[in-house]
Every structure is written in structure tokens, then in C-alpha cells.
Write a structure and sequence with these properties.
The protein is an alpha/beta fold. It has 3 domains: about 30-135, no CATH class; about 175-255, no CATH class; about 265-420, 3-Layer(aba) Sandwich (Rossmann fold). The chain is built from 16 helices and 10 strands. The chain has helices spanning about 30-40, 40-70, 80-85, 95-135, 155-160, 170-180, 250, 255-260, 265, 280-285, 285-295, 310-320, 330-340, 355-360, 400-405, 420-425, and strands at about 1-5, 15-25, 230-235, 300-305, 320-325, 350-355, 370, 410-415, 435-440, 445-455. The strands form 2 sheets. It has an 8-stranded mixed beta sheet with strand order 2-9-10-8-7-4-5-6, sandwiched between helices. A two-stranded antiparallel sheet has the order 1-3. Strand 7, helix 15 (about 400-405) and strand 8 form a beta-alpha-beta unit. Helix 1 (about 30-40) runs antiparallel to helix 4. The longest helix is centred in the first third of the chain and has 38 residues, at about 95-135. The chain binds adenosine-5'-diphosphate. Adenosine-5'-diphosphate (ADP) binds near residues 357 and 395. Adenosine-5'-diphosphate (ADP) binds near residues 328, 355 and 395.
């Protein structure tokens, strides 16, 4: 079976982020967005690539260079003389030829990367198109019991847990608050095994995105890969026999080994002693995405409402003045503390063992941004073609989580499954408000969707 996909080196996949601003008024805005895309697809793609290249170009050119040198890969087929240029990158004898060679090398990498980007951008467009065309799930009985949770604020004090951080809220506010066509599995990115590529068949399309015709039905007219994207013949992989230091629960559970292989993309310092429990192996945000989100959400005080083993909190500590990391599970908090120590950021994080719903209901906490990466309902969530964020998110539906997050801040960010219903995600902004939806890709795999709410943190203009 032939399949086409984009892949950088296994441990450090490349991050691609595509964002789109939405305004909740009516479904007209969805049609409008899609028509803009279709009318001016090529221009949009080029603009997005230039943005991408401005940020990543130099890094990529460097990475490619070192890969060439270290692996001895002859991807550019340099001649013997050219190889000497690679051996002498700073060019102590920088002559015209050397200069010319470097220019050519740069151009080759640029072109290659443009093709790769165009391929993934097309995947993004297909996903956006399909999710905006899809019907919103029917509203059903709320899955979570909405009955008032008792005010446990006094109990928090009794346990000696912190009862306030950030700016104080006004009494009035406090009072009010107190009384108020992708079927890939989630783990596709983590998969090296053959099943995970099954749905990559349709990735091979005959039309270039640069052309005017956009083929959305995924039918392949001929068998040529788009833009020379690497073709890989899927063969049964040999079993990895080097399984030293693998946690036993990963060995015991079939299908979990793929997470182990990608450990460095979860935590680049994995080998320094990072601790993860079974659940965290598949729920932690991959480091490249966590780094990107931390750069995007840089502020004075951020709350990480479901911090788990600390993947996001650790990165927020790099870009924010202070982080409050909440998790209901004391074991997770211990792991997060330990992991933060490895990254040298413990002094910037306050760890709280507690229920986000109850802490939120106390209404005494304020922050600049609230980041929510709530439980998605375990790996089974991937079986749903259109993930209903009101029914399946835990410990409450998205609207309820939003309501509680608002007691902390107007600036709210949800990290959601990649099959989350985009229409619901947009609706969550509230009538007449805007929100930004980010698609986070690692190589060509859509890993998650990030939804950003709150005028102060929205950046992109409407296209
Ligand atoms: P996923 O379904 O994405 O794999 P997890 O099951 O890992 O997510 O959940 C994320 C984290 O949220 C876990 O560490 C869990 O302990 C924590 N969590 C669950 N419920 C609450 C809650 N009510 N308050 C705070 N943290 C919670």
C-alpha cells in the first residue's frame, strides 16, 4: 500500500499552527470564511507560508544543514566541492561560489518547505471545510449534574490551601460570582504503527493547492504524490527490541509503546527523570505545542486549570510571571512539581490540589488568562466523528467550564480534541463575540484544536 505523508525526524516533529478568527452571529460567517478561502486560496496559502517562514525559516535551514552533516544524507546531492562548503559553513574563504552554493541550498530548502507547508495547509483547509459544513450535534440532556456544588471555600482554608491569588475581585463581583473528513485517531501523531496510517490514503490528491480547483471529496485522480511529498511504502515494522527503561504499564498495555517512542516530543528532557503516570502518557500536551501556547499566552498570571503532570504549566512558567497549576489528583500534582523541578521553574508555579469547579465557584480567584485542558474522556474520545464538547468533556460541559473560567478571567483558552465540533467551539464565545480557533499540527498530524476567547488575547485579523 502506498501512502503519502510528511514527517520530520521522529523525536522532534515540526509544529504547524493555522488559525482562524470567527465571530458568532450566524452560520453566514462560516460560509463567508469558506468562500473567501475558495476564492483566494492561493494567496492565503502564500501569506500563511510567509508568516510561517519568517518565524521558522532560519531554524529549518539550520536543522536541514545539521541533519545533512550528521546523517550524511545526500538529500541535496552536493558535489565534492559543494560538500566542502557544508564542512565550512561560516566560509572562512567565502568566495562567490561558496555564496552561490549557499543561496542555492537556501532556495532548495525553501521550496521543499513550501511544498510541505502547502500539503499540510490543504489538510487544514479540508478539516475546516468539513467541520464547518457538518451539522452541530443535537442538544441533549446535559451529561453533567448541574446541581449546585457546596461552597467548599472554608474547607480549603481548613486544609491550609491557598484561598486567593491574583488581583482581588470587588465584593459585588464576588457576590455575583458566588451566586451565578478526518477519522484518524488521536494518537496518530504518536503512531509509528501501520494502523494509524490507514486513513492517510486520501492525503494523496492530484490537484495542487496552488491550482484553482480544490478537490474536497478526497478522490485521487492519479497516483502521483502532491509536490513530491515523500512516498513511503508501509511495511510491517520490525518490533523494537530495545525496550530497556520502559515503564511496565506501557509494556503491559498493547498499543501504548508508540507513546514511549515519542517520549522526547512530550518532554525534551525526558531522560532527566520526567515522571508520567499511565493516563498522562496520552493526555500530556506535546512540548512543541506547549511551548507555542506559552509564547502565545504570555501574561503576568495564568491559571492552568487541569495541569496533570505539568506539561503546559512548565512552559507557561517560561513566558508568564506566575503560574497557578490546579489538579484534583495529588499524585498528578506531585509529578508536576517533580517535572517542574527538572525544568528549573518550580519557583514560578503555585501548585494547588483541588477541584477547579469548586475553586472557581468560590469566586475569589482572578488571573489574566485561564487555560483549560480538561479530560477528554480517555482515548475513546477518538471514536467520535464529531466530538460534542458539551457532552463529552469532563468534569462538566464546555459551557459550564466556560462559566466557571469567567470567574477567573475574561481571557479563556480551551485545549480540545482534534475532532471537537468547531461550530460548538465558536458558539461558546457567546452571541456577537469573537474567538480564534487554532489547529495544531505536528508534522502532518492534527493533534489538537486550541480555542481562544477574550478580546484582549485575540490577535489575528479576519481574512
Ligand atoms: P484526557 O482525557 O485529556 O486524557 P486527563 O484524564 O489526563 O485528560 O485529565 C486531565 C487532568 O485533569 C487530570 O490530571 C485530572 O486529574 C484533572 N482533573 C479532572 N477533574 C478535575 C477537576 N474537577 N479539577 C481539577 N482537575 C481535574
Amino acid at each position: 500500500m502506498h501512502q503519502y505523508f510528511v514527517e520530520t525526524c521522529g523525536t522532534q516533529p515540526r509544529l504547524f499552527v493555522f488559525n482562524q478568527l470567527f465571530k458568532t452571529e450566524s452560520n453566514l460567517s462560516f460560509e463567508h470564511i469558506l468562500s473567501l478561502f475558495e476564492k483566494d486560496y492561493e494567496t492565503i496559502q502564500k501569506e500563511r507560508f510567509l508568516e510561517f517562514w519568517c518565524i521558522n525559516g532560519d531554524i529549518i535551514v539550520n536543522e536541514e544543514f545539521w541533519r545533512f552533516r550528521e546523517n550524511g544524507k545526500k538529500s541535496l546531492n552536493p558535489s565534492e566541492t559543494e560538500t566542502t562548503y557544508f564542512d565550512n559553513p561560516l566560509g572562512t574563504d567565502m568566495c562567490m561560489e561558496n555564496h552561490k552554493f549557499w543561496q542555492q541550498y537556501y532556495e532548495t530548502v525553501y521550496e521543499e518547505q513550501y511544498q510541505v507547508f502547502a500539503f499540510i495547509f490543504y489538510e487544514y483547509y479540508k478539516h475546516l471545510h468539513n467541520s464547518l459544513e457538518a451539522k452541530e450535534p443535537e442538544i441533549e440532556e446535559p451529561a453533567v449534574n448541574n446541581q449546585d456544588i457546596v461552597d467548599d471555600f472554608d474547607q480549603l482554608e481548613l486544609f491550609g490551601l491557598p484561598t486567593a491569588f491574583g488581583r482581588a475581585v470587588t465584593k459585588k463581583k464576588k457576590y455575583l460570582n458566588r451566586n451565578a473528513n478526518l477519522h484518524q485517531i488521536y494518537s496518530a501523531f504518536f503512531s509509528d504503527d501501520e494502523e494509524s496510517y490507514i486513513n492517510m490514503d486520501n492525503v494523496c490528491v492530484s490537484e495542487t493547492p496552488a491550482g484553482n480547483h480544490i478537490n474536497l471529496d478526497g478522490k485521487v485522480k492519479d497516483n502521483k504524490p502532491m509536490y513530491d511529498i515523500k512516498e513511503k511504502c508501509i511495511e510491517k515494522k520490525k518490533k523494537n527490541r530495545k525496550l530497556r527503561n520502559v515503564p511496565t504499564f506501557l509494556l503491559e498495555n498493547k498499543g501504548m509503546l508508540k507513546y514511549w517512542r515519542k517520549r522526547f516530543s512530550l518532554f525534551s528532557r525526558y531522560d532527566d527523570g520526567i515522571r508520567l503516570d499511565c493516563e498522562s502518557w496520552f493526555s500530556v500536551t506535546p512540548e512543541k505545542i506547549a511551548v507555542h501556547l506559552a509564547d502565545r499566552l504570555s501574561c503576568d498570571l495564568i491559571v492552568d486549570a487541569f495541569c496533570g503532570c505539568g506539561g503546559n504549566s512548565i512552559q507557561f512558567a517560561r513566558t508568564c510571571k506566575h503560574v497557578v497549576a490546579i489538579d484534583i489528583d495529588p499524585i498528578k500534582i506531585n509529578m508536576a512539581k517533580h517535572n517542574a523541578k527538572i525544568y528549573g521553574v518550580t519557583d514560578k508555579i503555585d501548585f494547588i490540589v483541588g477541584d477547579f469547579l469548586q475553586i472557581g465557584r468560590s469566586g475569589r480567584f482572578r488571573s489574566d488568562v485561564v487555560f483549560l485542558s480538561p479530560p477528554w474522556g480517555g482515548p475513546k474520545y477518538k471514536t467520535k466523528s464529531d466530538y460534542d464538547i458539551e457532552r463529552f468533556l469532563q468534569p462538566a460541559g464546555a459551557s459550564q467550564l466556560m462559566e466557571i473560567a469567567k470567574t477567573f478571567s475574561e481571557n479563556i483558552v480551551f485545549y480540545l480534541p482534534r475532532n471537537a465540533c468547531i461550530k460548538q467551539v465558536v458558539k461558546l464565545a457567546g452571541e456577537g463575540n469573537r474567538c480564534e480557533v487554532e489547529h495544531n499540527y505536528l508534522d502532518s498530524r492534527l493533534v489538537a484544536i486550541t480555542a481562544i476567547y477574550g478580546e484582549n488575547i485575540l490577535k489575528s485579523p479576519i481574512i
